[in-house]
Write a structure and sequence with these properties.
two-stranded antiparallel sheet; globular; 2 domains; 3 helices
């Protein structure tokens, strides 16, 4: 006689996620992100993606590029909050739908003011501004423009 097994997912907090990196469970070579409490494997970065990121910043943070407002301690005492973020940029080679739908929604909820997606295959930059603003062309609440 077969019985159904209930699968329970263990969700992680941001602090737990960071602690996994500190103790070596996750390392800088792991292509993962914490999305809504779940650790998600990201697709490998392709050569065009890596080249595009290398052209834009001096480093490759998660997300690909984050521009923060100046703070005297350079965020040594505490991680940036949404109000500290001036711009988030994702470079999308194979992840364009994910960056638009999943990450776009997360950034909307966090009230990030400016979010850009560098669409590598499309040779374009999508600019999303002012989350929550009424926009007939955007279901996510972003005012979108395509450059």
């Amino acid at each position: 006689m077969a019985s159904d097994v209930e699968v329970v997912r263990r969700r992680f907090t941001v602090d737990e996620y960071h602690r996994m990196g500190e103790v070596g469970i996750l390392n800088e070579d792991d292509r993962v992100e914490l999305i809504r409490g779940e650790i998600v494997h990201m697709t490998p970065i392709g050569t065009r993606h890596a080249a595009c990121v290398a052209i834009l910043p001096d480093s490759e943070p998660q997300p690909d590029i984050v521009l923060l407002r100046h703070r005297a301690d350079f965020y040594a005492s505490q991680l940036p909050a949404p109000d500290d973020v001036a711009l988030i940029i994702e470079v999308a080679d194979t992840s364009i739908r994910y960056d638009r739908r999943v990450k776009g929604q997360l950034y909307t909820e966090a009230r990030i003011r400016d979010y850009w997606i560098v669409d590598v295959p499309g040779d374009a930059i999508e600019i999303y501004r002012e989350p929550g603003a009424v926009a007939s062309s955007s279901r996510s609440g972003w005012v979108a423009a395509r450059c």
